[in-house]
């Protein structure tokens, strides 16, 4: 979601708990034929119900726009755009939308096929990394669905495992349905540009899957979906997304400036074929010109794995990055670190970069500022953002891109540790009804570790997780209060030395749950050195395995993926 630089800040934000909740339609009949059986789930814009056609007794999913948005014409339009976009793509791997109408209380709904299964995010959560033999047909279906969407002039823009449903069809347990075209961009629909549904400068999507150009707020094309598919493929095969950070900005910055760790070095025990790794890295090239030209080309590369065709070419990109590796963005203020060094070449087969790195480099710096400005608008909920934007732009103007580009990376110097975000304020909850979340965090061995519970939007602290130790007050611990709501609430769990996680919960009542935090992986010196020494060059035919592998790495059986807060903005942009 997110407003763009200089745009008016939305008056409400999707992820913020809201008092105006959608009316429960269970028991009602829509259009005289769709009986609402039960609630299936809640999204940013509304509620999804299980419905049944009264005559043919077929089950459907009914997506209803929240009552609180129903009177806003642009939001109704955005909601129905999902239905329109999906119904323009007659392809078996795209969810089918068959009907739409008005609810008795003045909202809108659409009817889609009921998907009896689970999304790929749950599959990875339950089963951990998935072997290539199974990932291949899954990815091919996703590629075909998107190729059909692109052929119809529709860019999905929010591809992620949560939007790929896995259902059983015949004997196939992995039949994929792509859904949630809620922020899809209809490229031929110039009118929608004018109506502000898809304007350049806006940032849409989910940070973990967001292409560098999306993070910059640049005009997207179908290759943002190619990039997201690279990230999805990475996650399915390794059990984790390539870039995580404590803040939205942190993740976006990594998409712009960091090369992902090679999947084969992350999970050596998975024996990911070299050609497969090259496909992921090519799809995830920062410069979209270097990615697969389209989904069909990506599908063909996936299909060709093991045929002897060899690995696709991955171009080493020189990308400037902030020296701290991340832009700090805490409590609505942004600071941009100085720029130094170049990002190591990626693994895979190399060839000379065809496009100007300098162009990309300068574009990325500008884009980072643009993204910061957009996120500032999102986080601050106020009118101070223009000043912040100008400050950031002024800071950008003082940067010397050509000079910093020449600063070499010192392989012997350890990178500065990423600073833990220090919460600057306590979460304000006066005047709102609250419920208590009782969260216990454990390490993979089952030991209780105490963590901070933060609001990922502004890093304000809600409180701490269960202390475990009597001496620390475990006996009296009653959890931490959050605003009661039927809407999803994201909380960020942060503990020193562990990977942070964002949890999505429905704070409708007091809730108790337990999560396991994974220790932060330490970068090895070997990786850094090999990065420095490998310039962008054509592959040495004698060396068939260009991916640097760590000396030893314990086998990772099951790494829960990071949940991410969804950044979509249903408020007109
Ligand atoms: N066609 C469907 N069949 C079965 N369940 C569905 C279907 N569509 C959605 N759901 C369920 O309803 C939940 C809410 O769906 P929805 O698309 O509104 O949410 P979302 O994708 O999480 O949010 P957003 O609309 O903000 O992206 C999903 O998490 C899913 O469990």
From TrEMBL:
The keyword Magnesium does not apply. The keyword Membrane applies. Residues 407-421 have a biased composition (Acidic residues). It is an enzyme of class 2 (transferase). Keywords: ATP-binding, Kinase, Membrane, Nucleotide-binding, Serine/threonine-protein kinase, Transferase, Transmembrane, Transmembrane helix. Residues 389-427, 517-573 are annotated as: Disordered. Residues 537-554 have a biased composition (Basic and acidic residues). Residues 34-305 form the Protein kinase domain. It comes from the Bacteria. ATP binds at residue 63. Gene3D superfamilies: Phosphorylase Kinase, domain 1 (3.30.200.20), Transferase(Phosphotransferase) domain 1 (1.10.510.10). It holds the Pfam family Pkinase. Residues 522-536 have a biased composition (Basic residues). Residues 392-406 have a biased composition (Low complexity). CDD domains: STKc_PknB_like (cd14014). Its EC number is 2.7.11.1. The chain crosses the membrane at residues 360-381. GO terms for molecular function: ATP binding; protein serine/threonine kinase activity. This is non-specific serine/threonine protein kinase.
């Amino acid at each position: 979601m997110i407003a763009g630089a200089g745009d008016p800040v939305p008056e409400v934000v999707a992820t913020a708990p809201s008092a105006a909740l959608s009316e429960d339609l269970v028991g009602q009949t829509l259009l005289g034929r769709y009986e609402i059986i039960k609630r299936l789930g809640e999204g940013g814009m509304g509620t999804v119900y299980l419905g049944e056609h009264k005559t043919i007794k077929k089950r459907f999913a009914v997506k209803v726009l929240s009552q609180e948005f129903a009177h806003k014409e642009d939001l109704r339009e955005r909601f129905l755009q999902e239905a329109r976009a999906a119904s323009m793509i007659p392809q078996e791997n795209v969810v089918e939308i068959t009907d739409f109408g008005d609810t008795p209380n003045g909202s809108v709904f659409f009817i889609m096929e009921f998907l009896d299964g689970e999304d790929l995010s749950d599959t990875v959560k339950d089963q951990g990394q998935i072997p290539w033999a199974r990932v291949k047909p899954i990815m091919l279906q996703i590629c075909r669905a998107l190729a059909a969407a692109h052929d119809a002039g529709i860019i999905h823009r929010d591809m992620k495992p949560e939007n790929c449903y896995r259902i059983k069809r015949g004997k196939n347990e992995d039949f994929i349905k792509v859904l949630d075209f809620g922020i899809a961009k209809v490229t031929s629909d110039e009118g929608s540009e004018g109506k502000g549904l898809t304007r350049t400068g806006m940032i849409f999507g989910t940070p973990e899957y967001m292409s560098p150009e999306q993070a910059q707020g640049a005009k997207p094309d179908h290759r943002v979906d190619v990039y997201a598919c690279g990230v999805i493929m990475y996650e399915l095969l390794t059990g984790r997304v390539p870039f995580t950070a404590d803040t939205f900005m942190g993740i976006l910055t990594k998409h712009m400036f960091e090369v992902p760790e090679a999947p084969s070095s992350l999970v050596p025990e998975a024996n990911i074929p070299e050609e497969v790794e090259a496909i992921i890295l090519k799809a995830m090239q920062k410069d979209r010109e270097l990615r697969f030209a389209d989904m069909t080309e990506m599908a063909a590369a996936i299909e060709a794995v093991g045929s002897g065709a060899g690995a696709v070419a991955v171009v080493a990109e020189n990308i400037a990055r902030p020296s701290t590796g991340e832009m700090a963005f805490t409590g609505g203020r942004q600071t941009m670190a100085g720029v130094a060094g170049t990002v190591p070449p990626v693994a895979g087969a190399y060839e000379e970069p065809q496009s100007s790195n300098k162009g990309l480099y300068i574009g990325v710096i500008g884009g980072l500022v643009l993204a910061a400005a957009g996120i500032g608008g999102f986080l601050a909920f106020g009118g101070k953002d223009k000043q912040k934007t100008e400050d950031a732009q002024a800071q950008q103007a003082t940067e010397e891109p050509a000079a910093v580009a020449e600063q070499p990376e010192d392989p012997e110097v350890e990178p500065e540790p990423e600073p833990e975000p220090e919460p600057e304020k306590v979460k304000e909850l006066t005047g709102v009804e609250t419920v208590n979340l009782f969260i216990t965090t454990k390490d993979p061995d089952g030991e209780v570790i105490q963590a901070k519970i933060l609001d990922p939007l502004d890093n304000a602290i809600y409180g701490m997780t269960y202390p475990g130790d009597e001496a620390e007050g475990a006996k009296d611990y009653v959890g931490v209060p959050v605003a009661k709501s039927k809407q999803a609430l994201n909380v960020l769990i942060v503990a020193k030395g562990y990977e942070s996680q964002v949890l999505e919960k429905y704070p409708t009542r007091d809730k108790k749950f337990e999560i396991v935090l994974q220790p932060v992986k330490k970068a090895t010196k070997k990786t850094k050195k090999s990065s420095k020494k490998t310039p962008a060059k054509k592959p040495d035919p004698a060396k068939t395995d260009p991916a640097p592998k760590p000396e030893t790495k314990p086998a990772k059986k099951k790494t829960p993926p990071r949940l991410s807060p969804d950044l979509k903005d249903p408020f007109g942009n």
